[in-house]
Amino acid sequence: MAMQKMRAALLLVGLAAAWPALADTWLIRDVRVFDGERVHARRSVLLEDGKIRDADFKGKPPAAAKVVEGKGRTLLPGLIDSHVHAYRHLDLPLLFGVTTQVDMFTAVPLMREVSERMAKGENQGQADLFSAGTLATVPGGHGTEYGMPIPTLTKPEEAQAWVDARLAEGSYFIKIVMEPGSAAHKIPSLDLPTVKALIEAAHRRGKLAVVHIGNLDDARAALEAGADGLVHLFDGAAIAAADLEAFVRLARERKAFIVPTFSVLESIAGLREDDVLADAGLTALLKKEQLLALQGSYGKQPKPEEMTATKAVTAALYKAGVPLLAGTDAGNTGTQYGVSLHHELRALVQAGLTPQAALAAATSAPAKAFRLPQRGRIANGYKADLLLVEGDPTQDIQATRRIVEVWKDGTPASALRKAQQEKVALEASGKVGGEVVALPADGRISLFGKDKLASPFGAGWVPSSDGFLGGKSSVQLQRQEGDAVRVNASVAPGFAYPWAGLAFMTGVRPGEAANLSAAKVLRFRVRGDGKNYGVSLLAEGVQIPVNRSFTAAAEWQEVSMNLADFKGIDARLLTMIAFNAGPVPGDYQFEIADVRLLDK
């Protein structure tokens, strides 16, 4: 995961429209049911007010019920991905039947935003999220390399205060990193006494403590320290029989759960999810930029032998009855939200699990392990988070990919799936972007009056800084006489690329794209303190804003920039135009006026 990508994605946090609060009544009739643990050959399931009203309904359908025939189909609990980094594409998992994600590290504002929507019952349009928020690591350790400053610790005495601070931020559980890197690239890592203190601090507050590990020794050490679960397995061309037996015995004795994360370990081994890439039904829901993540891998050369140890350990853990959870580590190269869980299920079966056990690993098992309320089962009173597929995935695991319908809190996702398919098809045709925005006759997009900062289209002008990502920069806007605004920016160190300034959100809602292909030139007037500034453009599918610099001299001057010079930005999908100070720390002041988008 790249935190620079997170920064761009978080510009869109909190901008999703609220979903309708009430759900229709549904009856899925005469369907095979996998309830999270067992298979029922034929049942009818009644959904009402976003809940499972009756998991074994008998009798005539209620008058208000919408009936879905289940013959030849299987109804499953909504799938749960037990290891993601949810910093973007928050609506994508639901399209593939993943109704809950367990997040191992994301930005606190995003975590809080989704938690608030869940609490209000307004999260029907995307997967629910249970997050660790910020992970526990040392200065310079794994998790600090992504550009966002995070709180770290170095000694056991700091553990309780660190844990309490995370819980105050809204973390659902505590995620701890034991990652020394490789022989070629060693990195600092928490020592064992501090890991143990963190686990005990979490347990003292009644919270789970899970550990990221990268090798067998750390996996054993984490379990011995009392970890509730390991959120990775380790790879390797081989594992000694004695080591395998000892590790499995320890995991069973400590009653720990394990998330193997085949998807990301295969990427590290240079392997791609070719089964997903070859499935037209799945790729029809992935835009080019989303597909691109799946087409890559961390390893430069395929080394399938590196998965030997992972498969052997997974098979032995399953045979010993150790809980296994399906998790992808989506957000990393070689993975993608939602769709990779179907690959993960296949990988678990190939490693030795039965299809039914693999399905439990993506439904009831994670719900139990992570204490996730009212999900992972088809039972009376549970959330109506469901997946209906053609065929029988309890016999053929790849039947999970033949999706008929997904319900989230009793609301079907078919309209969302259809809309995404249409976007993908439109993109493939080369006709991207919505209706072309008609530019004002004079091109002016800055209507800076005495009382407000207005615009002729789009969501308008807003102050922008790294503060919402944990940075320390700030900005104040002061309206001036005429069509001008003064930007007083304080750019502070502590963020990988600190900034503060003024941004124009081009879409109807902040974060939405607008087709500004009619615009060829950005022109504005500026004066200021003589320092260098940047114009940043962001478009849908672009992970990092594209920047061009200008100088704010003491006297008013006009600046013109060709949009074509912002390489990689498609004006048909433009989401933001920003005028920023940074990244050099310091105080900045400039005035900007008469911002125009011109057709020549």
UniProtKB/TrEMBL annotation:
InterPro entries documented for this protein: Amidohydro-rel, Galactose-bd-like_sf, Metal-dep_hydrolase_composite, Metal_Hydrolase, Metallo-dep_Hydrolase, NADH-UbQ_OxRdtase-assoc_prot30
Residues of the Amidohydrolase-related domain: 74-412
Domain of life: Bacteria
Domain NADH:ubiquinone oxidoreductase intermediate-associated protein: 460-567
Signal peptide per UniProt: 1-23
Listed GO MF terms: hydrolase activity, acting on carbon-nitrogen (but not peptide) bonds
Pfam family, one: CIA30
Listed PANTHER family: ALPHA-D-RIBOSE 1-METHYLPHOSPHONATE 5-TRIPHOSPHATE DIPHOSPHATASE (PTHR43135:SF3)
Name of the protein in its database record: Imidazolonepropionase-like amidohydrolase
